[in-house]
Amino acid sequence: MADSIVIFGASGDLTSRKLIPALYQLFVKGRLPGNSRIVGVSRSKFEHQQWRDSLRETTARYADDAFDAVTWDTFSKNVFYQSGDITNLEDFVALGAFLDLIEKDNASETDDRCGRVYYLSTMPQLYETAIQKLGESGLADDANGFRRVIIEKPFGTDLKTAQSLNQSIHTSFREDQIYRIDHYLGKETVQNIFALRFANSIFEPIWNRNYVDHVQITVAEEVVIGRRGGYYDTSGILRDMFQNHLLQLMMITAMEPPARYDASLVRDEKVKVLHSIRKMTGGDFASDTVRGQYSGYLDEQGVPVGSSTETFAVLKLFCDNWRWQGVPFYLRSGKGMSCRTTQIVIQFKQVPYIVFEDMPREPIGNRLVIQVQPAEGIQMHFETKVPDSEMKTRTSTLDFSFQGKNGGKSLPDAYQRLLLDSLNGDASLFARSDEVELAWGIIDPIIAAWNSPAAPALHHYETGLWGPTEATEWMREQHREWFDVCPVLR
Ligand code: BG6
After folding, report:
1. How far apart are the C-alpha atoms of 280 and 270, rounded to whole Å?
2. Cβ 221 under 6 angstroms from ligand 1
3. For residue 49, what are the contacts with CB-CB under 8 A and spacing of at least 6?
4. CA-closest candidate to residue 311, choices 387, 390, 405, 241
5. C-alpha dihedral over 145, 19, 164, 43, to 10 degrees?
6. Hey, which end of the chain has fewer CB within 10 Å, N or C?
7. What mean pLDDT is predicted for residues 338-360?
8. Closest among 192, 401, 223 to 297, alpha carbons compared
9. Pocket lining: 268 vs ligand 1, CB cutoff 6 Å
10. Does 181 score more than 60 pLDDT?
């Protein structure tokens, strides 16, 4: 069976930087099904060979060591380009005819069904139009093989727009044909949280309110907004990072074990977490959130004078359920931070009573640090005795590094996993319509409160720090400390 992957918005950065290198690497590993065709669609005019040549250069750059000229030549024979305008129905009809042609060329005698995945990597304003035209032109009809659509983020800009986008997609595609991307779900360590939690018996008994004091989920980025100011200023950190990536990390950390590792059962459990998140009201918006903006943001290209858009935020969320009642989940993300690190810290409770007298320092509660990036791994913190001392203790660590256990080879980029899963029809690592809408339902009221006259103060911070000092103070007032450590594993 020959499948086609059709990329709309093919002349964009995502295609050359992520999608084609990921597909090429899957091909190298022999994981790309059959003679899969890859067809790029955008308005620019290119000959097939011209497009292949431009991709050759970028793939050599982004596919690292995997690039090899001979393999590329074989791979790129199945890469095509079709110029087309997303607003023009005739261009979709022409695309359909072109796909029929190249797929027929490849169909086996016994099976002439060809599956198609349509990847929308266009401007988000064009998603609805593209989907409508796919429907009208018959390209969504799956009588002759699967038809799936992958939609990049952002999925709407609030609950209302997400609902309306879901509604219009559902007029052309069924929910099981829709794959909403959150690239954080494609990261190896994020998937490893499933393994850590549901393939081990030692963590489950302590993964709850009886043992866990709180959870910190931090996505810190060293980069600043740079030239993305035009987009970013209308978005802000809650839309850009929290509604999707941070809440996804929280769902996977907090969810119950699914009955089976199956797309709908996994997503049912994740959705239950969103249902259990306590809605903020009244004074919560001031007491349970921190807003920040790095100094210099206002000078970035495309940022309007006097903008109060946040580049840093903290949310303190609670899950009202049996497992997590009373355990705060601190979600924190910022640009212009001291380093790039994404980590989930499970902070366990302090020992109930210290039996050693005259200890120079109190033992810390145990911690499990799941480092999602840059290096993927897990670190366990526990107390040990300082040798040759009275009963003095210090914190020791047990490290697990994925890279070390992968023969030193780098881990696959998230897009490899996600593209492969969409071709294989596994939607476990994609967001479902109810998930996206519920996530907006949590974030929208916070955005509204931050835009209201009663908004909490916007704190400014210098780049290269862990956000505003007020965020550190705020945590201390709760008798807790941020785990402000740059990657614990390298
Ligand atoms: C994107 C956001 O979704 O994720 C960016 O729009 C952010 O602002 C990026 O920089 C972070 O992704 P990663 O994989 O580099 O952590």
Report:
1. 20
2. yes
3. none
4. 241
5. -90
6. C
7. 90
8. 223
9. no
10. yes
Structure tokens at 396: 């020791």
Structural domains of the chain, ranges and CATH numbers in brackets:
3-152 (3.40.50.720), 185-477 (3.30.360.10)
Q: Where are the beta strands (DSSP E) in 158-288?
A: 178-180, 212-220
| Three-state secondary structure call for residue 336 | coil
Taking the C-alpha atoms of residue 176 and residue 86, their distance in angstroms, rounded to an integer, is: 23
- Start-to-end CA span in the chain (Å): 42
Q: Which two tokens stand for residue 109?
A: 């005698």
| Residues contacting residue 36 through CB under 8 Å, at least 6 positions apart | 2, 3, 4, 5, 23, 78, 423
Band (pLDDT 50/70/90 cuts) for residue 34 is: confident
Rounded to the nearest angstrom, the distance between the alpha carbon of 134 and the centre of ligand 1 is 29
Q: Considering only CA atoms, which residue is closest to atom 10 of ligand 1?
A: 221
DSSP string of 96-132?
HHHHHHHHHTT--SS-----EEEEE-S-GGGHHHHHH
The predicted-structure confidence for 142-164, as pLDDT tens digits, reads as follows 998 999 999 999 999 999 999 99
- pLDDT at residue 110 in the model: 58
**Catalytically annotated residues:** 245
> Could you tell me the two tokens for 3?
């499948």
Ligand 1 near 222 CB (within 6 A): no
The model's pTM is: 0.95
Compute the distance between CA of residue 382 and CA of residue 399 in angstroms, rounded to an integer: 12
User: For 283-325, what is each residue's pLDDT tens digit?
Assistant: 999 999 999 999 999 999 999 999 999 999 999 999 999 999 9
Closest CA to 296 of 456, 460, 457, 469: 460
